[in-house]
């Protein structure tokens, strides 16, 4: 009887120990709130990092919210509604130029090129950029990176976007694909998966990549307020370490494996279409394979903004880019 009591007490103690241990080790995750500017296959490494458990492995409970638009995303960050914003690097320059006392600092890049494609209504056997002259062109929002990059590429090919084209920019971002599908425009600048979907359905034909033509640029980056950068170094290091693992994983895995890993983030999207888009983006180097933002890419960003008349002031690379975290996890 005495032995039975001892065994019972021992088992009870073991259960209590395991329960306390589970609470101690399982409940110590650091919550990081991330606001993403949109939901896009362009951001595949982020979703892969979540689905493959890379953030969880680093002790991060990642709360991801889609805030739909650069203004909303930056408002979320600056008002402490998010710890990290995933958005275009140009927004950090806009905020800085407005005299922010706690500016947004770029600490890791997710995409390193523009993600849009030039889609023609007619199938062209041999596309030349001069084919655009005199055409009706469905562009993107004035001041946004897609439009600025688009204009930059057009100028590189001797086309004045505001004089050589019938440029339409008064259609809301979400309605551009449907406007083209209904017959508006000879050419359109589209993100994926819409570009590939239109090509598959015979609505349009991809004739050029703005990302390939424009070169390296910190197109979509993770940024945090300077105060958060200073107070939460270990959190950001863990986040960036997980991101780097995800970037490497996406680069190395077959596109079908990547597509299966992220398809649940895209409701009603066929996994084969996701694989097509991942293949297109990866083959042209759209996904950054390292979180480190390069000085040349930062300079290219400001050149593109300046040409578009949207650069409020030149900002030194070291002023708004923090490389210490990315360097610590990649070296």
From TrEMBL:
Gene3D superfamilies: Periplasmic binding protein-like II (3.40.190.10)
Keyword check for Signal: yes
Signal peptide: 1-24
Coiled-coil segments on the chain, per record: none
Pfam families assigned: NMT1_2
One GO cellular component term: periplasmic space
Subcellular location, record wording: Periplasm
Keywords: Signal
PANTHER family given in the database record: ALIPHATIC SULFONATES-BINDING PROTEIN-RELATED, TAURINE-BINDING PERIPLASMIC PROTEIN
The family this protein is said to belong to: Belongs to the bacterial solute-binding protein SsuA/TauA family.
Name recorded for this polypeptide: SsuA/THI5-like domain-containing protein
Biological source species: Halalkalibacter okhensis
């Amino acid at each position: 009887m005495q032995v039975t009591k001892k065994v019972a007490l021992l088992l009870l103690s073991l259960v209590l120990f395991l329960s306390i241990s589970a609470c101690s080790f399982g409940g110590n995750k650091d919550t990081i709130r991330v606001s993403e500017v949109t939901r896009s296959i362009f951001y595949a490494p982020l979703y892969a990092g979540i689905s493959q458990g890379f953030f969880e492995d680093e002790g991060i409970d990642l709360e991801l919210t889609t805030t739909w638009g650069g203004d909303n995303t930056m408002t979320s960050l600056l008002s402490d509604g998010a710890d990290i914003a995933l958005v275009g690097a140009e927004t950090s320059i806009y905020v800085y130029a407005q005299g922010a006392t706690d500016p947004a600092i770029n600490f890791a890049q997710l995409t390193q090129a523009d993600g849009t494609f030039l889609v023609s209504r007619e199938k062209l056997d041999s596309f030349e950029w001069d084919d655009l002259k005199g055409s009706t062109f469905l562009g993107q929002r004035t001041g946004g990176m897609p439009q600025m990059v688009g204009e930059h590429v057009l100028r590189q090919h001797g086309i004045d976007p505001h004089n050589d084209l019938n440029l339409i920019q008064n259609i809301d971002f979400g309605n551009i694909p449907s406007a083209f599908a209904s017959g508006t425009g000879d050419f359109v600048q589209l993100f994926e998966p819409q570009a590939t979907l239109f090509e598959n359905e015979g609505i349009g034909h991809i004739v050029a990549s703005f990302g390939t033509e424009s070169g390296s640029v910190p197109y979509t980056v993770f940024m945090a307020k300077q105060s958060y950068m200073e107070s939460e170094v270990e959190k950001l290091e863990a986040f960036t370490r997980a991101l780097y693992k995800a970037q490497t994983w996406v680069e190395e895995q077959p596109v079908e494996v990547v597509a299966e890993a992220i398809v649940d983030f895209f409701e009603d999207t066929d996994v084969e279409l996701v694989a097509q888009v991942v293949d297109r983006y990866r083959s042209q180097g759209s996904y950054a394979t390292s979180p480190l933002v390069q000085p040349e890419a930062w300079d290219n960003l400001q050149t593109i903004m300046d040409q578009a008349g949207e650069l409020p002031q030149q900002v030194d690379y070291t002023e708004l880019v923090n490389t210490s975290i990315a360097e610590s996890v990649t070296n």
